[in-house]
Design brief:
heterotrimer; A mainly alpha; B mainly alpha; C alpha/beta; B: mainly alpha; two-stranded antiparallel sheet; C: Rossmann fold; six-stranded mixed sheet; globular
């Protein structure tokens, strides 16, 4: 009940944010929304299925590059088309990658996903003609539902129409993911996380289900990446670097991977905290490293795990 | 010198089953410490040709961070290995800023020391003697590690622990002490590696996260937890890198990851699985 | 009619021979116990029968299909289920969810992405009836890890039974349970099997009271070979077998 009221209040606050909050805070919320979508996917792998990916940034970068490439090189400006293309491309890439990765679990899975992420990174970095090399590719302002909003400047566009667009996409993504987690499929994934051997003996095709989860996670990652690229205005290889994958996992852990909304909370808190700490000290990595260590050692349930008692998602 | 980092990674993984992402940070720390030690020693009248001693001392001195870090990691011993992985990632972030704090954000390098020993011509190309020295040092350390692991009491204990920690514990091996020493040894391998390589290049704070990826490639190719594998893997990665740079620079990193993924897929245990840990 | 058949199974671990030419046929409606001293190869045999291990040589057929090493998922589809010696549950899932995983897998609905789990009427009805057969009807909403040991064991078996298999293999169903509870568990098991239409039960068991009390047939293994195979009365009459197998099992 309390959770429901808190959720409604948070939703209301997000809806009214363009009126209440400063443009600066809003421009921080945008990447947080994008990350939240990507993390919903990551959490299906880690929180629900029990696979820790250290290469999720691959798909975020893939989405961002799709947006960059389509807007600057192909002249496609409709964000709907961009998001769908990112999702489709992610599915195509995740097909072979997922088939290989789900053969392994635990550390081996993490290492293989890391290797694929770095493979993509070096591709982005070295193939200058296709990817713009280390400078990346710019992302032009997309059209939202056919509208260009030519009358608005960049900040006005981002904090106005785009804000609501991103929020709507996040809500949609969350609803879809909620449906997935609460479906028979979601239950089968949790059974795999808890005890893969036993799951196999009651007829769950462990590897196949892990593969499905990997595909879904990839699609969410790419959609988040496409959305992330718009406010950033740039897709660069750093998006695919392994430390970026690490940060994604960090956000997830911060929010709480036991909880369905952990990814959203984690993304928002991480972005704002990063901003605050960076303005205080140049050594924000140290602070964040220490914070991650504290979370891992003392609060593995994350923020939501602190608020509610442990309740698996 | 990738071998040293990879060897440290192997040692810690083999014995403690922790994949230490922070070993690249130790390498970077060693590099910076090496620069500082040499600068200080030369400033105090150390004859230039002896700078290597200062270098090694700097690298070794840093190994003191081993025990406290090991203690930190042990707080979550027994929990899911994903968390241990994340904790080492936290260390990566922290150590990177420690370096920035102590040595500043600009690259640091040792000018001149590199060529103190002069150059020689080997097989038609000019090679600084120092490079040969580093290669020799790598060989010596590899040999030393091999002897340590196979011939000494400590080595036997370490190998027994790697095989089966429960049995080793039941036989009265003090796990904590073994872990602490192994981890520290792993740290030392990384820091010495970093210190040795620094005269030939410059220390930048990003080197930590870059070298870990190479070390990781070495480890995967060579097989997790295998010392011989680390050596072979380092050779393969080194040759691959050099070859790719010479022929088609675009694919340098790409080639490495293709090999890594190929190995993971075809021989998940690595090319040298089952060799001495 | 033979349901499950293993012919001349040999199994080597390196140079160690765990099974040395075991032949075994299990018919519809039989309750067969596999007994033998530790190291006789019982667990290996069960692993081979359930497709977890491919035998070094020999064939395993289930309903006429070669199932050597096909893996547990395929076997579950075909109608063979297994419960483990050690308690094997999904710690964080509730009792109801645990059984539902099996029911969903049997109905081929486990991969449904967008269906609401809560809306699967038929599944939950079945979960409830299976849980009630095992006396777990009141604990549906409890996480499995909070159950007492005996109930965990029952839950493990219940989720295997929920697959409506034709054959079920039980690896020491009563190990780790107090003597007083053993018979209660066996009663529940046998009745549930009858209610769910499970034709054959194969169990590995050390407790001779249970073995002789419930089995139609007993197979005694010793050093990787079948030492004896017959009705309980026949085995009891065979002093040599009783001394080798039962004597050591009790030692």
């Amino acid at each position: 009940m309390i959770a429901r009221v808190a959720g409604a209040a948070a939703m209301l606050a997000l809806l009214l944010a363009p009126v209440l909050a400063s443009p600066y805070q809003l421009t921080l919320l945008l990447p947080a929304f994008a990350y939240a979508i990507a993390l919903l996917g990551l959490n299906l792998l880690f929180g629900t299925t029990g696979l820790l990916s250290f290469g999720h940034a691959l798909f975020v970068a893939l989405g961002a590059y799709t947006a960059a490439w389509l807007t600057t090189r192909a002249g496609v400006l409709a964000l709907e088309a961009i998001v769908l293309a990112a999702a489709a491309l992610a599915a195509v890439i995740a097909l072979p990658v997922g088939l290989l990765c789900v053969r392994y679990v635990k550390i081996s899975f993490g290492m293989l996903t890391l290797a694929f992420g770095m493979l993509f990174y070096s591709f982005l970095y070295k193939f200058y003609l296709v990817t713009g090399g280390d400078e990346g590719i710019r992302v032009l302002r997309p059209r939202l539902l056919g509208q260009t909003f030519a009358g608005l400047d960049k900040v006005g566009f981002l904090t106005g129409p785009f804000y609501y667009y991103a929020l709507a996409l996040l809500v949609l993504a969350a609803l879809v993911m909620r449906r997935i987690v609460r479906s028979p499929f979601g239950l089968s994934l949790r059974a795999i996380r808890e005890n893969p051997d036993k799951a196999a003996f009651v007829g769950v095709s462990v590897r196949r289900y892990r593969f499905y989860a990997f595909m879904i996670a990839a699609v969410f990652g790419a959609v988040g990446g496409a959305l992330l690229a718009v406010p950033t205005g740039l897709a660069d290889p750093q998006l695919a670097y392994w430390t970026h994958s690490g940060n994604l996992v960090f956000m997830l852990l911060l929010g709480g991977f036991h909880h369905f909304l952990g990814p959203v909370v984690g993304a928002v808190v991480f972005i704002f905290l990063q901003d605050a700490v960076m303005s205080l000290t140049a050594y924000w990595r140290f602070v964040f490293g220490a914070l991650l260590a504290v979370v891992v050692i003392f609060f593995p349930g994350g923020l939501l795990g602190l608020l509610a008692r442990e309740r698996p998602a | 010198m990738l071998f040293l980092v990879a060897a440290g990674l192997q040692l810690v993984f083999g014995v403690q089953k922790i994949l230490n992402l922070a070993c690249g940070s130790f390498y970077a720390l060693g590099a910076y410490a090496g620069v500082s030690a040499v600068t200080w020693a030369l400033g105090h009248g150390l004859p230039a040709p002896l700078f290597v001693v200062a270098l090694l001392a700097g690298g070794l001195a840093l190994a003191v961070i081993g025990p406290p870090l090991e203690r930190l990691l042990r707080t979550i011993d027994g929990r899911d290995e994903s968390f241990q992985l994340l904790l080492t990632f936290a260390l990566v972030l922290m150590l990177e800023d420690v370096i920035r704090f102590v040595w500043g954000p600009a690259p640091v390098q040792l000018r001149g020391a590199y060529l103190v020993y002069g150059q020689v011509t080997v097989a038609g190309s000019t090679v600084p003697v120092y490079n040969l020295f580093v290669i020799a040092a790598g060989g010596v350390i590899a040999l030393g590690m091999g002897l340590l692991l196979t011939r000494t009491r400590f080595g036997r204990i370490v190998r027994a622990t790697a095989e089966n920690r429960e049995v080793a514990a039941a036989l009265g091996v003090d796990m904590r002490r073994v872990y602490r020493r192994v981890f520290t040894l792993g740290v030392a391998l990384g820091t010495v590696g970093g210190a040795l390589v620094i005269p030939a290049t410059a220390a930048v704070s990003e080197m930590a996260i870059e070298v870990i990826v190479d070390a990781f490639a070495v480890v995967v190719i060579g097989g997790l937890g295998s010392m011989r594998g680390a050596f072979a893997g380092a050779l393969i990665v080194g040759v691959l890198k050099a070859g790719a740079i010479a022929t088609w620079p675009e694919v340098e990193m790409l080639a490495i990851y293709v090999v890594v993924i190929g190995v993971l897929v075809l021989r998940p245990a690595g090319l040298f699985a089952g060799a001495t840990p | 009619m033979t349901l499950l058949e293993a012919v001349d199974i040999r199994m080597f671990y390196g140079s160690v021979c765990a099974l040395d030419g075991v032949t075994l046929r299990i018919g519809r409606g039989e309750f067969v116990s596999i007994i033998g001293p530790n190291g006789a190869g019982k667990t290996t045999l069960v692993n081979v029968l359930t497709g977890l291990l491919a035998p070094t040589s020999g064939t395993v057929r289930f309903k006429g299909e070669d199932v050597g090493g096909v893996g547990p998922v395929r076997l579950a589809r075909l109608g063979m289920a297994r419960a483990f010696q050690l308690v094997n549950v999904f710690p964080a899932l509730t009792v109801g969810e645990t059984i539902a995983v099996a029911v969903l897998a049997r109905l081929g609905r486990g991969a449904r992405l967008f269906a609401a789990l809560a809306g699967e009427r038929r599944v939950w009805d079945e979960v409830r009836s299976v849980a009630e057969l095992f006396g777990l009807g009141d604990t549906l909403a409890r996480p499995a890890r909070t159950l007492p040991q005996g109930d965990k064991k029952l839950l493990d078996v219940a989720s295997a039974f929920a697959l409506h298999p034709e054959v079920i293999l039980l690896d020491e169903p009563t190990s780790g349970v107090s003597t007083a509870d053993k018979h209660a568990i066996m009663e529940v098991l046998v009745q549930a099997a009858a209610r769910l239409g499970i034709h054959s039960i194969i169990q590995v068991e050390h407790d001779m009271d249970i073995v002789f009390g419930y089995s139609d047939r007993i197979v005694a293994l010793h050093q990787g070979r079948v030492l004896a195979d017959g009705r309980p009365a026949e085995l009891q009459a065979n002093d040599a077998v009783m001394a080798t197998v039962v004597g050591r099992a009790h030692a």
